[in-house]
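To whoever is on call:

I kicked off a structure prediction for a single chain this morning and the downstream step that reads the tokens threw a length-mismatch warning. I double-checked the sequence; it's 155 residues and nothing unusual in it as far as I can see. Pasting both halves so you can look.
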Amino acid sequence: MNAENTVFDEISGDKSTWSWVRAEIHARAYVASFGFRGSDQQKNVGEISGGERNRVHSRRCFEAQATWLLLDEPTNDLDVDTLRALEDGLLSFPGCVVVISHDRWFLDRIATHVLAFETTRSFAGSRGTSRTTRPTAISASAPTPTSLIACVTSR
């Protein structure tokens, strides 16, 4: 990132419209979807907070034309608007996303497959498995998973 660029310039690049969540939107609306509204779009990248800088970086994930993403605790320190933009971006991502997270609510919203690791064993399941129904091989008294890995596959 160039510290001298404005947030708008850094996120929008030279594009006037973007394809985002299955629709064409104006560049200003695209930048706003990352939580930068109004005068925030004109701030220099060198002047924004670390959390705001992470939002600018997240744009690169969706622009990179990657076939898969690996995200480690992507919801840490995100505000609600940024979390919603992340969810929308992941749900419209055409490839595979592997997410390592303890945020079960987030995983229930985005995951198509879940692999949970517990203290002494692991299990695989699908959406909702991490929170409600576990395979019968794991007893109801089993400890809460210490680590969850979710995969969002192409829709």
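Update from on-call: the warning came from a stale cache, not from the record. Cleared it. Sanity check on the structure: The first strand starts at residue 17 and ends at 20.
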